Amino acid sequence: MLESSKVPALTRAIEILNLIARIGPCSAATIIEMLEIPKSTAYLLLAELKRQRFISVDSQDNYCLWTKLVELAGHALSKLDLRDTARPRLTRLMEETGLLCHLGIIDRENAYYILKIESSSTISVRSHEGKSLSLYRSGIGKCLLAWQPEATRNAIVDHLKFEAATPTTITDPDDLLAELARIRAQGWSFDNGEDYSDVRCVAAPIFNADSALSAAISVVGTRLQINEDNRDYLAGKAIACARDISRLLGWKSPLELQAS
Fold first, then answer.
1. 178-201 per-residue burial string, b: 16 or more CB within 10 A, e: under 16
2. CATH code of the domain containing 32
3. Could you read off the pLDDT of 130-146 as tens digits, one per residue?
4. Is the pLDDT confidence value at 209 over 60?
5. Is the model's pLDDT at 61 over the cut of 80?
6. Per residue, what are the HEC states of 40-100?
7. How many structural domains does the chain have?
8. DSSP state of 113
């Protein structure tokens, strides 16, 4: 075990996974001996890893890697592929609009930026890849929430803790559900200074080959850069870019599906 670890139990759990990956299915006794883990600790860790589907037990009572690792790897790889696919299209959108552009995903009840394309504008909005986003106060968050399956969407809204960050923040669950319905109807979302008073954002959804939501993109600026005069124009640009990325992921429009 690494002496510098601040979370020794986590370190030991990772060592168990690495050992099984290196030598293949093995017994508890082998794990205890090779990693020099106390027997009681080892069995607690093995039981938890099994409960979380990181490992399973085969017919010889050996521990082997299991489906949770495949699931996590699949999510990670799909997001990396998505970044590479979206980057040139999002860069072109930034060049066409002169504004900061993002790619974002939803993971359970949280949303995150996974790609940022900075603009050369002298007026900038601060953000970073990996930043966590509000699902009810941001344009990209509302967009990601709007296209969740109805049961998932309602469950997330039920668990949200609403806080009024600005005078335009939505703080009522029914108002948010009505806003999400409008977003789905028009095909894009808008952050009207709901998280930061001076920031505006237009966002559009990206779909995969199964017509399920994969991610969302956004065009972000200050209230001077995005306003009533150009908001619809920027929404059209965002939708067109999102559809280009969606098609690269295998998505087809309803008309294309009818024709095929």
1. ebbeebeeebbbbbbbbbbeebbb
2. 1.10.10.10
3. 888 999 999 999 999 99
4. yes
5. yes
6. HHHHHHHHHHHHCCCEEECCCCCEEECHHHHHHHHHHHHHHHHHHHHHHHHHHHHHHHCCE
7. 2
8. E
